[in-house]
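worker-03 picked up job from queue 'complexes'. Input manifest follows; three sequence lines, order preserved.
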Amino acid sequence: MGYRQRALLGAAALALFASTATAQEHVRWNEDGTVDLMLGPDYDDAVITTTREELGTLFGPDEKPFEGVEISITVNASGAKGGISGPLHAFRPVWQELSGGRLNVVELPFGEHYTKMMLDLRNGTGQYDAFMVGAFWYGDIAPAGYGFPIDELMASDEYPQWTYDSMPPALRTLHHWGETPYGVLNDADGQVLYYRKDALTDPEHQEAFKAEYGYDLPVPPETWQQLLDIARYFNGKNWDDKDAEPDSGMVLHLKVGEQGHYHFQSLSASFAVTPGDKVDQYHNVYWFDPTDMTPLINSPGHVRALEFLQELHETGPAAQVGWSLGEAWDYFLRGKSVFVFSWGDVGSLCQDTSRSKIQGVCAASILPVSEEYYDHESGEFVKAEDRAPVGNTTGGSWHGVISNFSANPEATYSMLALMAIKPVSLWNAQHGWTGVDPGYSYQFIQPEGEATIEEYEKAGWHPEDVKTYTQAYYDTFYADTMLAYLRIPGSFEYWDILDKNLSSAMSGEKSAKEALDDTATSWEQITDRIGRDSQLENYQAAIGYEG
Amino acid sequence: MSWTSRIRFVFLLPAVIWVLAFTVFPLGYSLYLAFFKIESRVEVTRERVPVLDEQGEPVLLSSGKPRMQNVVHKTQVTTSEFVGLFNFERLVGDPQVATAIRVTAIFVLVAVPVELALGMLLALLFNQKLLARPMLRTVMILPIFATPLAVGYLFFTIFYEEGGPLGFLGIPFLSNPDWALFSVILVDVWQWTPFCFLVFLAALQGMPDELFEAARIDGASNIDLLTRVILPLLQPTILIVLLLRLAEALKLFDVPFALTGGGPGVATQSYSFLAFRVGLRYFDVGYASAMAYVLLITVMIIVTLFFRRLRETYG
Amino acid sequence: MRYAVLSLIAIVIAMIFLFPFYWALSTSLRNPIETFTVAGLGIPWVDFQPTFDNWISQLATAESRRAMANSTTIAISASVLALILGTPAAYALARFGFRRIPNRDITIWFLSQRVLPPVATVIPFYLVMRTLGLLDTHLALILINATFVLPFVVVIVRQTFLDLPVELEEAAFVDGAGHFTSFWRIALPLAMPAIAATGLIMFAFAWNEFLFAITIASQEAITIPVQMAGAVDTRGVQFWFMAVRAMIAMVPPVLIALLAQRFIVRGLTLGAVKG
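worker-03 finished. Artifact:
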């Protein structure tokens, strides 16, 4: 063989070797039965280790169980390093290598996602195999039979293994409709309170506060009324020296059509929900009367909560009426407000120095409670000292639901389940950009959960911040009294009306009572239009009504 | 070859048929949607069947088991119920509709005259040989062609109250309901005054100099010149610009969508925005269609008012 | 003196109208944390340290490139289609006599299509496209956009033909040419500059279209405005990306407008006013 031929052969062999190497660059099957999932240079060459059992019997070193299969999953558009869509991009090459299939990540603008999904389902187009849904969409998906139940797939050992056992009960309900499971574990949403530890623990401020208000500054505040006092104290003073402008007490993201109404939901929970042992006509209900679908949204408890929110609004910048998450969070992250109450993203954004100036002093706690709540049965307000906190699962808790029109539910499930296995889910929770917030037992720090502070620190978290952060979420998800979640057909419309009226109240166009009364009136019309009996049935199923 | 040959239909008809198919037909469909309550559902049943090869034999996996595939059976169940004027009656009592009409009306009645007046003022001002004028003409083209949606988002950063470029004014551009509507108007004025300016300037340039000279010789003052000579001569142009701006302004959608989301509250929820929301977010298709029809009729009335003027222009 | 004052005013006005473009550029060059807090007038290098990260990240993604490709394809195809359908119709309305319905009424009928509120036809269009299996396809948006700009073409180009002396074509008849030949060989070439300019303006309108694009497209056929709306995610508007996308969106129509400058006035007033 001549020199040239040898060189050619060598080059061909090298190319072949290289191509095999590149073709196998995301999954490594180890001798000891573990499997390394490698995300590649785009994701800092992260490696997540799992076991063969955990991956399921369908996957194996040369198995391509879904070769030639192409699936589409819709998700809120946030890009390859953005919330909820990021993990889909990150794990796509891993899944494609394991399965031999192809995944289309269909990013849809947040406002359009629900619309596109509904158009697809109602018309049976079946263009998409799964949707990363917000939990409040279940009312439009499950009762109509548009979701694919995953109980059989979950029970099989062929697919990546995960379980609902690690979920707090309130979250678990959100992934089911009645007894049927539809949702694959992913994100866990709830609102917690974030506060500036340095400001609240400053001895000078503590002294001045006590002088002005007559009691010790609680760190963190346990009641909303205490929080309002603190916010009022700090508002208008330049207590943060990062800039020369005065700062605020609280900042809210009230922009209409976005996520402003969630503030009201979380805050009003402890004003308007009557605690009790069961979910019956008067206890543990928030949206409608479970016996006849009369809206409860304008009950005295709700109205008082809205009036309180209006007062709280005044301790923040007036512009926040038109702010959505980005602007409000930015304000807090720049150090301009003492408090914000919002989702887990804030905690992880605090750690991102390209966005935040407050790493290390960004503490979290469960939301305060109201000193009084409304008793629906007696029709009176009840003053309660030392109340147990009220939790919430406010938000989307975005997770995958398979379309009942999908021709490849198994392949789709295998992708969703891959992201749900413990090591992957833990990795997602630790890396804030994924938009996946902690809510499952292995994500909480010991002793409540199984994770350690060191793991979070490695992912870039300041140890002080992450301790309070995971504790806050643990408390929020396991509280005895929870804000019920609305998941009936037309939830979107009900919430949109509420949102618009809330915004009118916050901008001063309507009084709190007017806004909520108008909401109740519109809601009655919607209920009648959709069908009162079917709505009642769905509502009872959604909240776990026990009569 | 005469100008009444049959071939004229060959030239004309493709466009006409296209418009009929793509405009008149959907409008008719829309009317149907407004008069009926349409419930559309899909019934799904699934089964797993073995994959068969060309000979009709089941394909086996390496384990010996047959390869299965999913077959999805879909049946669309549509019920349509004639509801007569129900959707139109709803319009009358709906506070959101009333607000949307008010918002759109205020917008149109403020923005359009301002644009016309400002455009005219600028055109009169610069209707003379100025070195800067070609530069100005070129610059003024840009806002007209800027993507309205992008403009909406951009102005959000400009109106940002806590430190944006206009923050020093201390005006609650986006957090106060009345100012928010003003902000939407401001954006529209920014985008469309140039259009009025360019058109009026072109029309003014088209007027012969002798006219002005003759008037001056007769002792006309500037004001007289303006009101007795220029404006009457420009009347056709003014009316065309008015019609075009009116029609476009009534369609207001992109800017509130991007700038305020219709808020605060519903202070900037324009009529088209509401119809869009009702139809494509709440899926109350009949109601949205009824809403859209009312807007359509309004626009048609306006066009009819201008009809005679249009005939003269295009006669 | 008066001259100088006017020139100054002209410059000030130009600056006012250019400011948003400048601000978009400035925002696109800033770090996210500085979006709302930049000092002074946000002049790059003077008030802050510019970064090209936002631009790189936006241009490098497959989604951006697809959106740009889609917008280009759809806008060009829609304009061309509208020109093909509309130019003969314009010629017919300019030259031939229609008796049943007079020419000017037909012209006004075309014109009235322009004032149709898009929201009135959005849902039927969606349903029709779904039935035809054309959802999320380029074809659907091309057809829809062509429909929207067609009235412009008919009315504007008609005016252009009217401005051409009819004697030229009549001379051709004498030489034995038919209608189509005289149209194709005489009228059309003479009107071509105006037709081209019209086409460019139609391109800009199709490029900027948002309502239908967001309804019909979900993945394959996403255009730039739709992708811009996608910069709004669950965390709110990411203005640093938005500014980049806004600039990308605005550049082609603005460039086109500059190219077709002379024709703008006539184009925008549908021929009613000569530019």
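worker-03 released lock.
Chain B has a mean pLDDT of 86.
The first strand of chain B starts at residue 36 and ends at 50.
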